[in-house]
């Protein structure tokens, strides 16, 4: 689809998301409407049956909260009254328990009349159990939604505000069910306000550019784009994450506070674990801001937080299961944008780099102090955050169209697919906050040019993938040479075996090839030179391709120990080795040094970065 077609489709769209000011129309009572009136005849049951499973019955109670009762509890008067929030009017009206009561008439005569004195517990229990049976088995297909921004069946954002739900152009009370999504009641949460104009978005962009010193050009655009994407919660297919880094005095924490202040609905922590963050975000589609995300000695915890982001950014987010102390499994759902800040990010793998946009901050210029202005901007952001949120939501259709246009332009510029998702979504968010139109070809090029330093091409992605990082770690490891104090890197030993006979290496000589071969053999590595065809006994040298190559033993303990305390510990290094393009794992065994022949993996020397002379 061409950009003009996308623009026309959006402008003629017959569906729209309308932001109701403050999420509460005039006259609505704070806290969930007027007090319940007396039940009318044939009034529907105020409790909604959702289904049953393994002897448990699932309901939305009178105020819309999810309740789970056992069969015994369904037959308990106290639990039934709790389910109906203490109001037994509907129960008495539909399942009356009557008794003969004596009273006196106007003449003082004693009369006996039948009155409703309670409700029939067993009948109510049977009715509710039958309703659950009719609703069917309760399972993961029924999605219990907590506060946040979620996608409706038609894709439009639904804003769950705790006690009410904004669906399109109407406001529903919590407890509403649309399809398989159940908007369960929760305490009231912040609402978006009527959309502001692009002037507010441009003002925020300019203040961020002026008050912070970005090492990479376009950092302020990336920051505003991340904020816009955070407003959408789970309603966009890709939710980019951000990492603000910088030394002391760079203002990374104050910038994070500005973003937090501009987000009325969010989670903020400055000391958390992966499990703690999961519990805070479980079932809530809202942004999370994490300060000091990796400024601790325990880097494993920081990497665990990064791993949480991997699945929360795309699709349906993180859907996991955690065991409980009572032996009952508990489901975990985490979805939404996550923005972190720390002095230095933890060690990121290729999959993290494709989901995080790293924004590097430098200290302010000498003599400059923007602390007061940072606090003032946070105050401004708090005052205008609801309107900025409303602007993003109202521009959801434009965001979707802009994303398609920016992705197409990024593809033409040589950007990798994952980068197209990440940067395309950020650029679309920046555009929606600062413009009222759909970007044309010129606008797309301006945006891509502004973030050109953030674009990773195919070569960048390749050098940062896990197999390449594993090989780089291996080749830089220093090992002892013949029980001496001399230490050489694995790469130096391999180069000594591959170099020409006439080559002089002052840094390695008088290290002989036989010594290098012996040391590498101890670590389960055998080098095959390109001119080695047959040994003196006439046996062909083992090889899986023409040219130089290396054999790596799969079970060498000394080789495996070189990867201790790295992401490639155990047998992970072998898995990454096999992912190399030239890697071959024949079933035959290869003899390495004095070791017994073992199963090995072959990799060409060229793929490992070793150039070999023609006469080597």
- Low-pLDDT parts are 23-39
What portion of the residues fall into strands of 2 or more residues?
15-25%
Number-wise, the strands total 26
Q: Structural class of the helix and strand makeup?
A: alpha+beta
Written description of the protein model:
36% of the residues lie in helices and 20% in strands. The two termini are 55 Å apart. The protein is of the alpha+beta class.
Structure, briefly:
With 616 residues, the chain is of the alpha+beta class. The model is unreliable at 23-39 (pLDDT under 50).
Q: Which features does this protein show?
A:
4-stranded antiparallel β-sheet, 20% strand, 6-stranded mixed β-sheet, alpha+beta, 26 strands, 616 residues
Any chance you could write out the topology, listing elements then pairs?
Elements: H1 3-11, E1 48-53, E2 56-60, E3 66-70, H2 71-74, H3 77-83, H4 89-94, E4 96-104, E5 110-119, H5 121-135, E6 143-145, E7 148-151, E8 157-160, E9 164-167, E10 170-173, E11 177-178, E12 181-183, H6 198-211, E13 213-214, H7 219-231, E14 241-246, H8 252-261, E15 267-269, H9 274-281, E16 288-291, H10 299-312, E17 318-323, E18 329-334, E19 338-342, H11 350-353, E20 356-362, H12 371-394, H13 396-412, H14 417-434, H15 441-450, H16 458-463, H17 466-475, E21 478-480, E22 487-489, H18 490-498, H19 513-522, E23 525-528, E24 549-553, H20 557-561, H21 572-578, E25 589-590, E26 598-604
Parallel strand pairs: 6-12, 14-19, 14-20, 15-16, 16-19
Antiparallel strand pairs: 1-2, 2-3, 4-5, 7-8, 8-9, 9-10, 11-12, 13-20, 17-18, 21-22, 23-24, 24-26, 25-26
Helix pairs in contact: 1-13, 6-7, 6-12, 6-14, 7-14, 8-12, 13-14, 13-15, 17-21, 18-19
């Amino acid at each position: 689809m061409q950009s003009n077609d996308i623009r026309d489709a959006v402008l003629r769209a017959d569906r729209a998301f309308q932001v109701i000011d403050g999420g509460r129309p005039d006259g609505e009572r704070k806290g969930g409407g007027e007090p319940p009136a007396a039940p009318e005849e044939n009034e529907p049951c105020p409790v909604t049956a959702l289904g049953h499973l393994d002897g448990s019955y699932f309901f939305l109670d009178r105020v819309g909260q999810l309740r789970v009762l056992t069969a015994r509890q369904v037959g308990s008067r106290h639990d039934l009254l709790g389910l109906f929030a203490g109001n037994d009017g509907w129960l008495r009206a539909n399942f009356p328990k009557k008794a003969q009561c004596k009273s006196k008439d106007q003449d003082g005569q004693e009369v006996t009349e039948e009155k409703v004195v309670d409700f029939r517990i067993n009948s109510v229990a049977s009715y509710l159990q039958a309703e659950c049976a009719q609703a069917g088995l309760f399972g993961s297909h029924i999605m219990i939604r907590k506060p946040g921004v979620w996608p409706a069946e038609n894709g439009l954002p639904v804003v769950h505000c705790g006690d009410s739900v904004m669906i399109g152009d109407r406001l529903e009370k919590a407890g509403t069910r649309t399809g398989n999504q159940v908007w369960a009641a929760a305490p009231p949460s912040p609402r978006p306000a009527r959309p502001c104009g692009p002037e507010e978005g441009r003002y925020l962009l300019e203040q961020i550019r002026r008050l912070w010193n970005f090492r990479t050009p376009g950092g302020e655009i990336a920051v505003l784009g991340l904020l816009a994407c955070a407003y959408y919660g789970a309603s966009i297919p890709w939710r980019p994450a951000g990492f603000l880094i910088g030394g002391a005095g760079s203002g990374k924490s104050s910038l994070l506070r500005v973003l937090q202040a501009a987000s009325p609905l969010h989670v903020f922590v400055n000391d958390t674990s992966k499990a703690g963050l999961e519990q805070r975000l479980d079932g809530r589609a809202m942004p999370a801001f994490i300060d000091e995300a990796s400024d601790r000695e325990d880097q494993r915890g920081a990497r665990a937080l990064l791993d949480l982001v991997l699945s929360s950014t795309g699709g349906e987010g993180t859907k996991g299961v955690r065991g409980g102390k009572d032996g009952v499994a508990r489901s975990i759902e985490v979805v939404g944008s996550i923005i972190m800040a720390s002095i230095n990010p933890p060690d990121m793998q290729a999959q993290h780099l494709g989901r995080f946009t790293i924004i590097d901050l430098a200290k302010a210029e000498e003599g400059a102090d923007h602390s007061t202005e940072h606090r003032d901007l946070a105050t401004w952001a708090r005052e205008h955050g609801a309107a900025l949120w409303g602007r993003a939501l109202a521009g959801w259709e434009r965001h979707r169209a802009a994303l398609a246009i920016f992705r197409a332009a990024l593809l033409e510029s040589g950007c990798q697919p994952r980068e197209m998702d990440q940067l395309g979504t950020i650029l679309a968010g920046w555009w929606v906050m600062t413009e009222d139109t759909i970007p044309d070809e010129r606008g797309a090029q301006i945006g891509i040019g502004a973030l050109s330093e953030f674009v990773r091409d195919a070569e960048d992605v390749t050098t940062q993938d896990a197999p390449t990082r594993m090989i780089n770690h291996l080749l830089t490891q220093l090992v002892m040479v013949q029980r001496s104090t001399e230490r050489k890197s694995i790469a130096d030993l391999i180069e000594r075996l591959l170099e020409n006979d006439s080559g002089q290496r002052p840094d390695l000589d008088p290290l002989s090839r036989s010594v290098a071969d012996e040391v590498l053999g101890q670590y389960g590595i055998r080098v095959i030179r390109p001119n080695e065809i047959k040994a003196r006994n006439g046996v062909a040298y083992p090889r899986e391709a023409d040219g130089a190559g290396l054999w790596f033993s799969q079970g060498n303990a000394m080789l495996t120990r070189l990867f201790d305390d790295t992401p490639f510990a155990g047998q992970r290094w072998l898995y990454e080795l096999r992912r190399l393009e030239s890697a071959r794992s024949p079933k035959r065994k290869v003899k390495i040094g004095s070791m017994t022949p073992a199963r090995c993996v072959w990799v060409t020397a060229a793929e490992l970065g070793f150039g070999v002379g023609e006469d080597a």
